[in-house]
Design a protein that fits this description.
The protein contains 11 helices and 18 strands. The protein is α/β, with parallel strands linked by helices and about 425 residues long. Strands 8-9-7-10-11-6-12 form a 7-stranded parallel β-sheet. It has a 6-stranded parallel β-sheet with strand order 13-18-17-14-16-15, sandwiched between helices. A 3-stranded antiparallel β-sheet has the order 1-5-2, covered by helices on one side. The longest helix has 18 residues. Bound molecules: zinc ion.
Length: about 425
């Protein structure tokens, strides 16, 4: 007997991967069979990822863009399962006792208005504004309307951090967390938390689609993922974009009135964003093992038991710095993390649980993580890996707690360049606006 829940919900399957019985059963449950490719302007496109199929040879045509999800040949057929699903009625939906600030409440009103009008909406909120809390009432409304919600981020860490938070506030609703690194097999849930990549597997599946960190890698500039977002929302649905540093294309759509926007300049605790202290290094960061100027700073932090994050542009620089730190300060407890680190989530948790005093990281932790009472230090802030957006996000890791709103941020560099200038100028501008 097939477990229908592992299929339903606007999910796309290649019929070659399904047994004859399964196909029939899923068709009876409202699924439809469609060709795997379609023609437009004399070009051939893949129905799953909407990218063009570039022929390798005359007879061998398959989609290379979404091959990671299983091969789709030009002659294949896809089965798209029904997204008409009845979810169980719950006694109550949102269980949250927190309070929204006046500014957040205004954002919520605008968001609910957009929901009513089925209008795509952008929330441009400074880091630490509490945008996650602002989507709770929207999700509640959608649930009350018996609808399905997906919350997606390009970054898996963001999804993983979001999952327990939502489980807590929507305790009776089914919530699933799906991403490439998880062992959990897809199954139908009323709320789905997933990486944006997962959306490639869906067509017209979600009534409310929330995209967090819309400007971040790998979503930024990735045509396939952007198309996946549009394709996976229902025709009658809406998309909500969340960002502290929205991309130009979205702001352009706001300007053309294709989407509406809410701007939040203020953090939830009403204190300004910490403004980075810019510090010039005359020699590189590893000069004499660790640059003497840096050493003074680090020694002070260690002595005062102050917790800190150190951001590096590249993994090798971080690794050699970590070695020097060990030599210089054998008593300092720290972890280092990067995108290549399989233990990343555990290590981040160790830092969060205060089991170590410091965390060394690349831009992988520039967003989506919240720690309290920390100093944030960027080394080689003038490196090309640190864009303006990146620097703003990193600075946004500081001062997130009500009781530690003035955590310091330091940018160390050898050349004060354009991105450092732009990042500092934007943070200061946002603070000015918040005062108005
Ligand atoms: Zn494809």
């Amino acid at each position: 007997m097939i477990k229908i829940n592992e299929y339903l919900g606007g999910r796309i399957f290649n019929t070659v991967d399904l047994a004859y019985d399964e196909i029939n059963y899923l068709k009876n449950c409202g699924g439809k069979i469609v060709p795997a490719t379609f023609k437009k302007d004399n070009k051939l496109f893949c129905r799953r990822c909407l990218m063009e199929l570039k022929p390798l040879t005359k007879n061998l045509k398959y989609c290379r863009s979404c091959i990671n999800l299983g091969k789709i040949q030009a002659s294949d057929q896809l089965l798209i399962t029904s997204s008409d699903v009845l979810y169980p009625i719950q006694q109550s939906y949102l269980s949250w006792s927190g309070e929204l600030t006046v500014i957040q409440q205004k954002g919520v009103r605008e968001l609910l208005m957009a929901f009513k009008k089925k209008q795509d909406h952008l929330i441009w909120a400074v880091t630490g504004a509490g945008k996650t809390e602002m989507i709770f009432p929207l999700i509640e409304q959608a649930l009350l309307n018996k609808q399905r919600i997906a919350i997606c981020s390009p970054r898996v860490d963001v999804c993983i951090e979001l999952f327990p938070r939502l489980q807590k506030v929507f305790p009776t609703t089914t919530i699933g967390l799906f991403h490439g690194k998880s062992d959990e097999k897809y199954h139908l849930t009323q709320i789905m938390i997933a990486t944006v990549h997962q959306l490639i597997r869906f067509e017209e599946a979600f009534d409310v689609l929330i995209i967090d960190e819309v400007d971040s890698y790998p979503l930024a500039g990735n045509q396939m993922l952007h198309q996946a977002i549009k394709k996976s929302r229902k025709k009658s649905g809406m998309i909500v974009y969340l960002s502290a540093t929205p991309p130009k294309e979205l702001l352009f759509k706001v300007k053309k009135q294709q989407i509406t926007m809410t701007k939040l300049y203020q953090r939830f605790h009403r204190h300004p964003l910490p403004e980075p202290q810019c510090r010039l290094l005359l020699k590189e960061i590893n000069f004499l093992g660790v640059n003497p100027r840096l050493r003074i700073h680090l020694r002070k932090l260690i002595k005062n038991h102050q917790r800190f994050m150190l951001f590096f542009p590249q993994i090798p620089i971080m690794k050699s710095f970590a070695q020097e730190l060990k030599n210089l300060y054998p008593k300092l407890t720290f972890v280092d993390v990067s995108s290549k680190d399989k233990e990343r989530l555990t290590k981040v948790q160790q830092f969060r649980d205060k089991k170590v005093q410091a965390i060394l990281t690349t831009t992988i932790l520039e967003r989506g993580v919240t720690f309290k009472k920390i100093s944030v230090i960027v080394l080689d802030a003038d490196a090309k890996e640190f864009s303006k957006t990146s620097l703003i996000q990193i600075a946004g890791r500081a001062g997130r707690g009500k009781d530690s709103y003035d955590d310091p941020v330091y940018f160390y560099y050898r050349y004060y360049n354009r991105q450092i200038h732009l990042a500092c100028a934007e943070i200061s501008y946002l603070n000015q606006q918040a005062k108005k």
